């Protein structure tokens, strides 16, 4: 894939109840998640945005749960060579949760964690030139912002730059909390795709993803009506957009972002 290395190319919800997840996220974000998984193999369902795929939903089975898997949103970072990327992550102090393996028709991938223990996937897609559109900075029903909260933001910035070319392109001071460091990758050509920040006392360490919705007030109402929780917001952020910090009915953290004219 062109300009794949260091780009977020996919997003995945791990859930103990795919049917309930579909009902919740379809209503909150406007997706159409597959009602059933294809026959055979694991229970994996596609997330359909209005203009294409936005990610996938994987139903956790009993063995996965017994092995410690929990509901969570995870991101996939594209790489040129999965095996080399995994070896490099391990050499830099990261962990390997799932060694490289092939998914027929999709590509090669592995699950790793950075030196602070934050999990993510690395993947090489199988179709040359078919760039992913799962991340779209201004695309409704897509991830619009990738935010890492971590116990050591300086170490994280150094790690992701060395491994994936994800670089700091500015910062917003947050007083005693430190900096909110904006990040970009080769595909974004200098435009921020997200940020890295120190974990706050009430924060959620990990890669957190903000999905774009057309109107923040309606999205908040849907979250609350369908068994989710609003942790913070709506808040208007620099630039005028509105954000909302939420958890779904399984307690999985996610964010929402809406245009500045959507009100609160």
From TrEMBL:
<feature type="domain" description="VOC">
    <location>
        <begin position="142"/>
        <end position="259"/>
    </location>
</feature>
<dbReference type="InterPro" id="IPR037523">
    <property type="entry name" value="VOC_core"/>
</dbReference>
<dbReference type="InterPro" id="IPR029068">
    <property type="entry name" value="Glyas_Bleomycin-R_OHBP_Dase"/>
</dbReference>
<feature type="domain" description="VOC">
    <location>
        <begin position="7"/>
        <end position="125"/>
    </location>
</feature>
<dbReference type="InterPro" id="IPR004360">
    <property type="entry name" value="Glyas_Fos-R_dOase_dom"/>
</dbReference>
<dbReference type="InterPro" id="IPR052164">
    <property type="entry name" value="Anthracycline_SecMetBiosynth"/>
</dbReference>
<dbReference type="Pfam" id="PF00903">
    <property type="entry name" value="Glyoxalase"/>
</dbReference>
<protein>
    <submittedName>
        <fullName>VOC family protein</fullName>
    </submittedName>
</protein>
